[in-house]
Design brief:
The chain is an alpha+beta fold and 267 residues long. It is built from 7 helices and 15 strands. It folds into 2 domains: 138 residues, 2-Layer Sandwich (Fructose-1,6-Bisphosphatase, Chain A, domain 1), CATH 3.30.540; 115 residues, 3-Layer(aba) Sandwich (D-Maltodextrin-Binding Protein, domain 2). It starts with 5 loop residues before the first helix and ends with a helix.
């Protein structure tokens, strides 16, 4: 069982409070007022409400920390360690708006450019994934490890399809073709933070996606690392807060998956 640190306690409390409102709105999804934010990328009243709750809760607990939030952007704090919260209040908005019960709140704490704490909370399944640098990854207090599979033909991978209006569909189809030819399957569930959490839990053996934002993967990346997985940019370079394209897996499969993705681009 994990002993929650003060910062993880702050994060899980904030996520839990925002989640109560998301669950209520999810039950009335047909009545939500929805506006278009971009091609196939929606924002709802529920999304904005959750972000407001998270900002209020996190600011109250740590008033000096800055923020990077999906809806309202970046705001600097005056913390001497340059700490800031990276927040996605509703990852999987399209799932949410279609009544699909697979979405999450994603919170990461960044300190001098490095992610040191993470929470990904699935309110429908009541699964709280947490991690801190050097202290492992947990699901509702149970320690997690990535899968130990070594064979691609036994592995299941997750990915994300480029949205309508964005480039990359042909590249994506080439990648899926390459991975499906050697693996046990590919899944596309539409919530990057949970895809990464599932890699950390050994449910998926790996994950890749292009064109992500820091709030999409910052928390999930730490979950994977602290569960013993390996995550990098597609192509092998170290992942940073400015890396939009990532691939992760256990240490047995990461290189082979990355090589397949690179091969598909050259084909």
């Amino acid at each position: 069982m994990s002993l929650k640190s003060p910062v993880i306690t702050v994060m899980t409390k904030a996520a839990g409070k925002a989640a109560r409102h998301l669950k209520r709105d999810f039950g009335e999804v047909e009545n939500l007022q929805v506006s278009r934010k971009g091609p196939a990328d929606f924002v709802s009243n529920a999304d904005l409400k959750a972000e407001k709750i998270l900002r209020e809760e996190l600011s109250h607990a740590r008033p000096n920390f800055g923020f990077l939030m999906e809806e309202s952007g970046a705001s600097e704090g005056d913390d001497t360690l340059q700490r800031r919260w990276i927040v996605d209040p509703l990852d999987g908005t399209t799932n949410f708006l279609h009544g699909l019960p697979h979405f999450a709140i994603s919170l990461a704490l960044e300190e001098r450019g490095e992610i040191v704490a993470a929470v990904v909370y699935d309110p429908i399944k009541d699964e709280m994934f947490t991690a801190e640098k050097g202290n492992g990854t947990f699901l509702n207090d149970r320690r997690l490890r990535v899968s130990s599979r070594r064979r691609m033909d036994e592995a299941i991978f997750a990915t994300g399809i480029p949205f309508k209006g964005l480039e990359g569909h042909e590249r994506f189809l080439d990648e899926v073709r390459e991975v499906m030819a050697v693996s046990a399957g590919v899944r596309r569930w539409g919530t990057a933070s949970l895809d990464l959490a599932y890699v950390a839990a050994g449910r998926f053996d790996g994950f890749w996606e292009w064109g992500l934002q820091p709030w999409d993967y910052s928390a999930g990346a730490l979950l994977v690392r602290e569960a013993g997985g390996y995550i990098s940019e597609i192509g092998g370079r170290s992942l940073s807060s400015k890396s939009p394209n990532l691939v992760c897996a256990n240490t047995n499969l990461h290189r082979e998956l990355d090589e397949l993705l690179r091969k598909s681009r050259k084909a």
